[in-house]
Amino acid sequence: HLGPKLPDGFQDQHTILQAIIKTTAMLIFSLKAYELAKKLRPDIVHANDNDTLHIGLALKKKQKVQLLYDAHEVWSYMIDGQVPKIMISIFEKIELFMISSIDAMITVGEGYRRYFQEMGVDNIEIKLVLNAKAETIDQYVKTDNPRPVVSYIGMLKNNRFVRELAIAGKEVSEIDIII
Description:
By secondary structure, the chain is an alpha/beta fold. The protein contains 6 helices and 6 strands. It starts with 12 loop residues before the first helix and ends with a strand.
């Protein structure tokens, strides 16, 4: 390895540069969003995930608005593998601190609700709002495809097991996999 030793969790200088760029872009977005929302003087602020919760908190303190936190992802899981483990722990603590000031919270499933309750969110009731069509299929629906098709739509990260899906697909010639 040539060059300086990188902090644990970072793969290369490109990763560090990406983190700096993303952090700077998020700071600029946060300041602009806060200034715009302050001018609008809302009664209720909907913080749509962890990356906007701090903006909602600032508005709540400054303008005494009600704050709804919409947590449709677990951020620490989402950023796992992209930042050092210590940063994930710090983000979890910051999120829990911010959640202690919200007025209402919604999330997308029972597993998420349980996660936040286990984190210590006990100051409010967490409501469930499904963000997908609730549909149950109890029998196979034949398609025009000559072979079954497995489709993955999502982030290409190690913790999503996409590589394992591709490897398994190579071994099972009777199906097609679309990533």
